[in-house]
């Protein structure tokens, strides 16, 4: 069997009613003749939308096919034991040209019971935000089910939701159960469990071209919502140049920010996991035995677990990556 190497995948572009042009203008991706692109799925194991390798001798193979063949060499032994051939994370860019609906995701337990699927815990890294752009994370006051339902019924839900003005570099961790919505004028990188289970709570009474409102999942959402109130929902973090700085760590993924302006030698032997690099600033070169790949802003690359030593070299002054592993 040939050795593995850092893998790039062909993005899967999603036409969304709320999408815009920033996947092209901010991230340099050509989404062809879609009128608007809401999402670019960078690495996906979601059935029906499984990523296909675009570089090297494995080009044309799907992520699932690679896991079937390489197993722990690709994803790490502990990851393979836990998830088998299902890739555990979905990596995407989202361009909200309009407000996204207010929604919530169930946790593993509820999702397994209802949908035979994993729950969805996720995080957002804000890549770009227009002046004054806001997103919703959680509630802005202590709340219970009864009050929530009353506010929902009276179309006063927005009064109790916590909205935050954002700028590039902001991070929000969204555990399953937290009510959330991306507001218009924001581009995020999203790291999430492999799951497509979403309960829509509120959609601003918008109507489609035929005058119909989108379905809401009021009852389903009720059991999924975590009503806990927090003083702050934004993730505070600090970075150190030329070092991986931890930003989010949960049962499903760890995300670091890696800012560097000099060549770095990386060794991931002890992780027993694949590593994903999402480039959010600059351009760099990754070199591993027998393979070299250039990666620029808006591109994502997967380092197989067996490629445990490699070098990252900046090609622009400074490079910023989101570094993700299980």
TrEMBL record:
It comes from the Bacteria. Keywords: Isomerase, Metal-binding, Zinc. InterPro entries: Carb_Metab_Reg_Kinase/Isom, Man6P_isomerase_Firm_short, MPI_cupin_dom, PMI_typeI_cat, RmlC-like_jellyroll, RmlC_Cupin_sf. The active site is at 200. One of its GO terms (molecular function) is mannose-6-phosphate isomerase activity. Residues 247-325 form the Mannose-6-phosphate isomerase cupin domain. GO terms for biological process: carbohydrate metabolic process. Its cofactor is Zn(2+). Zn(2+) binds at residues 105, 122, 180. Pfam families: MPI_cupin_dom (PF21621), PMI_typeI_cat (PF20511). Binds 1 zinc ion per subunit. Residues 8-117 form the Phosphomannose isomerase type I catalytic domain. This is Phosphohexomutase.
